[in-house]
Design a protein that fits this description.
With 389 residues, the protein is an alpha/beta fold. Helix content is 38%, strand content 24%.
Length: 389
Amino acid sequence: MWCCLILDCGKQINYKEVGIKQIMSKILILGGTGYTGRLIARHLLEQSEAEVTVAARNVDKAQTFVRELNQQYSGQCAGAVYADTANLESLRAAFRGQNLVVIAAPTTVYAETVIYAALETGVDYLDVQLCAKKFAILQSTAGEIKRAGRCFITEAGFHPGLPAALVRYAAANLDTIQNAITAEYFNTGRDLPYTEAVNELIESLRISQAQVYKNNQWTKGGTFQLRSIDFGSDIGLKQCYSMFLEELRPLPEIYPSLKEVGFYLSESHWMTDRVIIPITWMLLKIMPHFIRPIGKFLWWGLSTFHKPPYRVELQIHAAGLKDGNVSNFRTSVAYPDGYGLTAIPVVATLLQYLDGSARKPGLWMMGYFVEPIRLLRDMEKMGCIIRQG
């Protein structure tokens, strides 16, 4: 069973104003020279007093990036170290002396090695990976993690990560929450580069059961639910397809009043939706091990057939009761690209970890580890566009 830290979401605390100092911590970013890892490093140095170590297989590349960081930010605030996720000894050496490791590398094939290296060296852990195998390994070691007094955070970022946090945010603004639909619009145009992280997304699509919670029960696995969702503003009404996220599973137990919970992905362009994606599904069925070429094919479609607006946006559409009356609640979180919208929630989560307000031994999904009101406020400070209503 998951540990769920549910804080008082009604209290908005400015920790700097009340004088709560961040705990000095050493944070290692595994995959720190990758697109997401670089952004996490920069935001951490801008927002906290943490010492950052960039870990990568290519030490020269890591050292070059660290020199850039130390020129941009005052003092020797960053360092570089060699680490190879396929080499347990290199992980042990890199993790020693650190307080927390951030897994920003798409290396889920070595998830077990990384997890046990963190446990052996006595460091806390956060990952941004979307992987059923990694998730199962973490669940199997949850007891060991808690007994060791370690804090492990998984399913971090915007997808997964934000959907459960947004539902909790909505619940804090309603007396009783009855419906909670999260929806994602993803359209970043031609400029977003392909990285190995796309492979994880393709793998998750391949095994996704597409379940949603309706009429007080989960729908049958393997059947997509279609839903028209009005994103408002310049996006408008979009046909959306259900996708199951593990972080949604605990919500009906936490909020027994919930009658409907789900996560939906928006359509993009007719060519992508009617041609590229169906071909992608067919290829995944007949060639399930060819994740990378299939991922590049889908990424080509997403970056070729598109039209504005260009951004990534997550929304929560919730309904329930407020002061005895039926009430609707809606909030959106937007950013120009998915890599930035992965890094920013991670750093906002780490700010709560660093000042000790959220850290607690055990295994946590990000959506339940954070205090959601502060999370969104800190994300807004880092450039996310937050709209309510």
